[in-house]
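Researcher: Structure for this, please.
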Amino acid sequence: MTQLYRFLSASGRLLYVGISSNAFARAREHGREAIWFRMVRLIAISRYPSREAALKAESVAINEEHPLYNRNGEYAVDTTKFSAPPAATTWELRQLKRTVVQLQRRLAHKTKGTK
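Model: Predicted structure, token format:
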């Protein structure tokens, strides 16, 4: 199973879309590598049965949702004109992961009852 992840800012702006077999491990890598990661406050994850399906969904998301930092290294905005909040701590990332898991369980439970 492959995950498509979306990194969003506190205001809900889509920052980045990517795919990985482990979105949280990939988030840690982005945290070490990408200056824009300091703006991430929410990670939305969708699961796909194959890498090919996730790649197609990623391409659609990038082309239709216009994330700020999926531009082959070119930023859609000048990041020097604002100061980003401090990077998320490991504790904050763990809390975020717990929250996402809880929300996914609630959604699965709600959608199970509507089928």
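Researcher: Any notable elements?
Model: The longest helix spans residues 90-113. The mean pLDDT is 79.
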